[in-house]
Write a structure and sequence with these properties.
Blueprint (H helix, E strand, L loop, with lengths): L1 H35 L6 H7 L5 E2 L5 E7 L6 E5 L6 H4 L8 H5 L1 H5 L4 H11 L7 E4 L3 H11 L4 E6 L6 E7 L11 H6 L8 H4 L9 H11 L8 E3 L2 E4 L2 E4 L7 E3 L1 H6 L3 H22 L25 H8 L9 H12 L4 E2 L4 E5 L5 E2 L6 E3 L4 H16 L14 E9 L2 E11 L6 E7 L9 H14 L1
Parallel strand pairs: 1-4
Antiparallel strand pairs: 1-2, 2-3, 4-12, 5-6, 5-17, 7-10, 8-9, 11-14, 12-13, 15-16, 16-17
Helix pairs in contact: 7-16, 10-12, 10-15, 12-13
The structure holds zinc ion.
Length: 463
């Protein structure tokens, strides 16, 4: 009998212990995942009692906030610039996306739960969750949106030495406040307004890819800086014909001249000499086929050459055509690395989390994501990019009193007219901003230059 009682005691004690362990584990580790999971139906009840945190820009201006409508117990989410920030902030109904989704845990969490709940009971104060402060510059974002509005495409601006995203705009856009009502229409729209073209849009990089081909040539071909070549406007590689834009013959060019005027025959010649394997190494060092480390939704860029690739594939790829696909975010990171002594920083949008009583926590520390270029190669590429703006295809990027570096791209694609690309940074010797612009089916790369120029100039005037 005594033995039985002892057994029952230990049996229930063990069960109780398991329960405690489970609760502690839930509180410590699983709750973050559960709160972050946008398909958790209990979220709606949490949202009804806790005031969701505010999302601020880098200067403390509110972008998204929650408030109660009088007579209603439920909070509603408001956006001060709904369309301008639609892709970066995302939405909280019909699943979640963007910052609203990624940082849902903070935006739903009370920093000091016990104290805040007691305070709410005695002082009738609101239960306010943590807020988020972003790296985005609201004014630059609005300007980027204004410049892009009505054209299909994307703009990314980032700070080369930290990886802070200053602006990210995609068009067409959507209204996050009416997402539920318009969900079906938005998700079936052939123009894909829900896709963030800046980080998810995969495009042939066109001549912006010559940054990678040039880096590979500098690192692998000894006499590359003194090499000269006579461009006749087109060149055959077996049965593959490579043409310069508008069949223009660039004449006798060196690497710098070929880069500045975007000579395709020169670069396809280089690609042919380098071969698929060397180009792939340089492309992958610059994170093609690799993770970018970006915290929000994005797609990996792809590069398909190997040592077994055919000559026609290699020459096409070396000028940014073929099967290569890149996102505007990634091309901005590559250009920024050239301006940052060859170091590519991990891109980020969360600067820090702010508690209900204005304490800073979880501040992001900038970290290196990759080293695509040696300092010497980065220097040479920057010089060539300066030449593009000084006298080449990117002259419209000139900023008065500031040396600017850039590269244009005209990307042939299966969806119609060429896409226009531009990536650039300023000041060239110590860049504060790097901008990438893509305009779908806009024709030649020069069409993308004025947008980037205006954004860089505006940002430099302010900072
Ligand atoms: Zn040429």
């Amino acid at each position: 009998m005594k033995k039985n009682i002892k057994f029952i005691f230990w049996f229930y004690f063990s069960l109780f212990l398991l329960l405690i362990i489970h609760l502690v584990k839930f509180k410590v580790s699983d709750s973050s995942d559960l709160i972050s999971n946008s398909y958790n139906p209990r979220l709606n009840s949490i949202e009804a009692t806790i005031k969701r945190g505010t999302i601020y820009d880098r200067n403390g201006e509110a972008l998204a906030y929650s408030e109660k409508i009088s007579g209603d117990e439920k909070y509603i989410r408001n956006y001060n610039y709904p369309r301008e920030f639609s892709h970066i902030l995302g939405f909280i109904s019909n699943g979640k996306s963007g910052v609203e989704s990624k940082y849902n845990f903070y935006l739903e969490s009370l920093h000091n739960e016990l104290f805040q709940r007691i305070n709410a009971v005695f002082n009738h104060s609101e239960l306010t969750a943590d807020s988020i402060v972003l790296t985005i510059d609201k004014d630059l974002q609005l300007e980027a949106y204004r410049l892009l509005e009505g054209k299909k495409g994307a703009v990314v601006a980032l700070e080369p030495d930290t990886g802070k995203i200053l602006s990210m705009v995609s068009y067409p856009d959507f209204d996050p406040e009416n997402i539920s009502q318009n969900w079906q229409e938005l998700s079936e729209d052939e123009e894909s307004p829900l896709i963030n073209r800046a980080s998810q849009g995969l495009y042939p990089p066109g001549s912006t890819f010559k940054i990678i081909t040039a880096a590979s040539a500098i690192e692998n071909i000894d006499d590359i800086m003194s090499r000269r070549y006579n461009c006749k406007g087109e060149e055959y590689f077996d049965d593959k014909k490579i043409r310069c834009f508008n069949l223009k013959a660039h004449g006798n060019v060196n690497l710098t001249g070929a880069f500045a005027y975007s000579c395709n025959t020169f670069f396809s010649q280089l690609g042919n000499e380098l071969g698929g394997e060397k180009l792939r190494l340089n492309a992958e060092n610059a994170l093609f086929n690799k993770d970018l480390g970006y915290e929000l939704e994005y797609n990996k860029s792809s590069f398909a050459l190997t040592k077994y690739s055919s000559q026609s594939e290699i020459v096409e790829t070396s000028i940014g055509q073929g099967k290569t696909l890149a996102t505007p975010l990634h091309m901005a990171m590559i250009a920024a690395a050239a301006g940052n002594n060859g170091i590519m920083m991990k891109p980020y949008v969360l600067d820090y989390v702010k508690t209900y009583n204005d304490k800073i926590k979880n501040q992001t520390v900038p970290v290196m994501q990759a080293k695509p270029f040696s300092p010497d190669t980065a220097y040479e590429i920057t010089q060539m990019m300066e030449k593009v703006v000084e006298e080449g295809t990117g002259v419209q990027a000139k900023i008065k009193g500031v040396i600017t570096a850039g590269k244009t791209g005209t990307a042939e694609n299966s969806s119609g007219d060429d896409h226009a690309w531009f990536v650039g940074f300023a000041p060239a010797d110590k860049p504060k901003i790097c901008v990438c612009v893509i305009l779908e089916n806009a024709g030649s790369g020069s069409k993308a230059v004025p947008t980037a120029q205006k954004l860089m100039q505006r940002y430099l005037e302010k900072s």
